[in-house]
Specification:
The chain is mostly beta strands. The protein is about 5% helix and about 45% strand.
């Protein structure tokens, strides 16, 4: 029965399906802080597969490939939590871009307006000694501190009467 077949009685139309994606948030006016976790949201239609998220600064970019740097491509679920690096420069000229992947690389959208990212201010506070202690020369003492958003290493120096450093503690000791 391979010769049995039939055709439609008249012509019909097949409409092309156009994939779309739209950034919902951040879409302009928000303020984020470097080093914090933020949520990017988007809507899409007819866009199967995965998407990528990128952060753009000053219309140039991407300044930071969010998805590829953190966990590969994102499932097209409509939202993703992203951890902003502490090293991002402060500015009020950031946008998010969300884009489809092969074969949908020409499907993308950006935040409608700029949003702000505040820089992280590094801090360090000496906990001990912090006044009133008496140390004896030639003895080993412990210096403690707290810090936040402080990349890299620190240096410890001894000051006498607010002048110094009288002695720079060697990195070899630490």
């Amino acid at each position: 029965y391979t010769n049995v077949y039939d055709y439609s009685n008249s012509n019909f139309t097949i409409n092309a399906v156009t994939p779309t994606i739209t950034v919902v948030s951040p879409n302009g006016g928000q303020t984020w802080t470097a080093g914090t976790t933020q949520t990017v949201t988007w809507t899409s239609s007819n866009l199967p597969g995965e998407i990528s998220i990128a952060l753009y600064k000053g219309g140039i970019g991407p300044a930071y490939l969010v998805s590829e740097a953190q966990w590969g491509y994102n499932p097209n679920t409509g939202s993703a939590s992203i951890l902003l690096p502490t090293t991002l420069a402060q500015g009020s000229d950031y946008k998010i871009g969300v884009a489809g992947h092969s074969p949908y690389t020409n499907v993308y959208n950006y935040s409608n307006s700029y949003f702000t990212i505040n820089a992280v201010t590094p801090t360090i506070t000496v906990v001990s000694p912090n006044g009133g202690q008496t140390w004896t020369a030639g003895t080993t003492q412990t210096v403690t501190w707290t810090s936040s958003n402080l990349p890299g290493e620190i240096s410890i120096a001894l000051y006498k009467g607010g002048i110094g450093p009288a002695y720079l503690v060697s990195e070899a000791q630490w």
